[in-house]
Please model this.
Amino acid sequence: MSGLPNCVECNSEYTYEDRNMYICPECGHEWAQGQNTTDDDTPVIRDSNGNTLTDGDTVTVIKDLKVKGSSLVVKVGTKVKNIRLVDGDHDIDCKIDGVGAMKLKSEFVKKV
Model:
């Protein structure tokens, strides 16, 4: 076994890796390594360590994040409870104490 995932379009087992992309030589489909999908075509969202995230999880921020349009900063180690996964570039919807409703990228959090 090569350990690479099957193609998400045609289920071919002959996928190969090119930098941070998977490519299927049979149908030509390309997708990013962090954006694998399950059989029901829902995206699998992973944290910075590669753990799968689900709705209701608790995560910790791993980097200081500036809040756009404000002077607030979400500090490293801030615990965010009860996240909700959404589609888009910022794939986590949550509420942070002292800041309010925010959207975060999963690459800047780790699962607790």
